[in-house]
């Protein structure tokens, strides 16, 4: 049976699903938790978007039909389907995606979100700024000065952190991942092939590289500046073919499905949303567009005038939503519901100030705010809340010494900082949030703190 199905998959290679990834979503139960799981994948052709699932590998008796889309001619189809009404009583859900005629993926499995809002214990990895592979496997080919060229390093690695995530998964130490923006640095990919169009190939590579993780646990994402567009020489020279199709966070919004609709967040996109998991209310914020002064509200990361971006909601819509979402979470917390509110977004503290939401975070008692963007690690040390944590040391071609820790400034607090390749893990219980930063190379603990 196994042999037969792999022979079938080989013979229909064009339609074989790749890049299988999960995210929390679907209808919310009486405890406020998603009872579903989105699954997304890519195929070169356009078979139907079917997921079949069940409670054992041999019983995939439920089936759901999703849909697929292509955002760039010749670069495949991205599918999304929703596994619904997953029971709390089963330990694991098994599933495969694909199409009867064109072949199925292998069978993967995952754990449903806990059904209770208290008494739950779980762990997640949180980080931003993770590139794809390293400079040995993807050597930069653009002329470099001593060590960098336009801020791109000659020597860098995301492999250490990727390997650390694999071992955290294998030892059962993480239940899911929150990647707070700058996913794969695919817009920098031309550095290894200056004149070629590599954006899609590198995004595909990143997603396949992550599949062991993303197919077995939710991988939640927030938008970073590197998600905004393709601005490589090939994309600029071939604006009609590439550039215009890849601006305005298109790949980010087409490849991923986050529970925005479920949480009244950004419409049809992943720019802002929230969800509950166990005792925590998580809010994923948009530091890139849709507020006064947002750096990418008019144009994307390169600010090339014709690569327009932004306007995912009406004026003010995002911040109005954010306040209402935090207020509701705060009221639930005060009423003895969930214990914690965790906010996450791409840019660090100084952007929270520019967005004028620092007061909101204090008023509604946000416990922690996680960010990336500054390619290094820093954490505030006072007992004030929120605790601000920049977990930007996953490893990327822009990573340098923490010279530019964007946390510094009016906050005037002492910080713990590190410029090592690192992977963050948050253990959650009703009593505390235990955060630790692990050195991705040798596994030692760089920093740890209990948030009560
Ligand atoms: C899931 O449950 C909802 C509410 O009970 C129901 O309306 C819906 O049809 C169910 N979906 C599936 C796929 O069973
Ligand atoms: C994914 O899992 C397979 C099977 O255990 C392993 O051989 C492979 O190295 C893993 N990939 C990564 C990127 O860790
Ligand atoms: C960006 O995409 C959003 C969502 O599709 C759309 O509402 C907005 O108008 C787009 N912005 C630009 C500048 O094209
Ligand atoms: Fe960034």
Automatic annotation (TrEMBL):
InterPro entries: Calcineurin-like_PHP (IPR004843), Metallo-depent_PP-like (IPR029052), MPP_PAP (IPR041792), PAPs_C (IPR025733), PAPs_N (IPR015914), Purple_acid_Pase-like_N (IPR008963). Keywords: Glycoprotein, Hydrolase, Signal. One of its GO terms (molecular function) is metal ion binding. Its EC number is 3.1.3.2. It catalyses: a phosphate monoester + H2O = an alcohol + phosphate. Residues 17-111 form the Purple acid phosphatase N-terminal domain. Residues 386-448 form the Purple acid phosphatase C-terminal domain. It is an enzyme of class 3 (hydrolase). Belongs to the metallophosphoesterase superfamily. Purple acid phosphatase family. This is Purple acid phosphatase. It comes from Triparma strigata.
């Amino acid at each position: 049976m196994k042999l037969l199905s792999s022979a079938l998959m080989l013979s229909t290679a064009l339609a074989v699903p790749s890049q299988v990834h999960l995210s929390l979503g679907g209808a919310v139960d009486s405890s406020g938790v998603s009872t579903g799981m989105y699954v997304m994948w890519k195929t070169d052709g356009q078979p139907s978007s079917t997921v079949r699932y069940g409670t054992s590998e041999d019983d995939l008796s439920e089936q759901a039909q999703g849909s697929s889309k292509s955002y760039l001619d010749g670069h495949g189809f991205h599918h999304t389907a929703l596994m619904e009404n997953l029971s709390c009583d089963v330990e694991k859900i098994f599933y495969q995606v694909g199409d009867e005629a064109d072949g199925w993926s292998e069978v993967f499995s995952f754990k449903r979100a806990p059904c209770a809002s208290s008494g739950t214990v779980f762990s997640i990895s949180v980080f931003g700024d993770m590139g794809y592979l390293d400079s040995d496997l993807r050597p930069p080919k653009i002329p470099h000065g001593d060590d960098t060229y336009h801020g791109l390093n000659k020597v860098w690695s995301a492999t250490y952190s990727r390997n650390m995530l694999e071992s955290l998964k294998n030892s059962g130490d993480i239940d899911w991942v929150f990647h707070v923006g700058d996913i794969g640095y695919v817009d920098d990919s031309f550095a290894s092939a200056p004149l070629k169009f590599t954006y899609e190939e590198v995004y595909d590579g990143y997603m396949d590289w992550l599949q062991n993780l993303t197919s077995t646990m939710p991988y939640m994402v927030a938008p970073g500046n590197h998600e905004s567009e393709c601005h490589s020489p090939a994309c600029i020279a071939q604006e009609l073919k590439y550039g215009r199709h890849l601006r305005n966070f298109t790949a980010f919004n087409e490849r991923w499905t986050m529970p925005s609709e479920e949480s009244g967040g950004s419409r049809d996109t992943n720019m802002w949303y929230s969800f509950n998991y166990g005792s925590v209310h998580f809010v994923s914020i948009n530091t890139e567009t849709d507020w006064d002064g947002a750096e990418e509200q008019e144009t994307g990361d390169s600010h090339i005038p014709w690569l327009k971006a932004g306007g995912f909601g009406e004026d003010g819509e995002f911040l109005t939503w954010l306040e209402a979402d935090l207020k509701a979470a705060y009221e639930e917390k005060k009423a003895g519901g969930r214990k914690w509110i965790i906010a996450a977004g791409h840019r660090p503290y100084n952007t929270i100030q520019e967005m004028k939401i620092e007061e909101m975070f204090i008023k509604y008692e946000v416990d922690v705010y996680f960010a990336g963007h500054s390619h290094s690690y820093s954490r505030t040390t006072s007992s004030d809340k929120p605790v601000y944590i920049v977990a930007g040391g996953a490893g990327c071609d822009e990573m340098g010494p923490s010279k530019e820790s964007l946390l510094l400034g009016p906050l005037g607090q002492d910080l713990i900082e590190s410029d090592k390749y690192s992977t963050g893990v948050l253990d959650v219980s009703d009593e505390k949030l235990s955060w630790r930063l692990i050195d991705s190379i040798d596994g030692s603990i760089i920093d740890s703190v209990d948030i009560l």
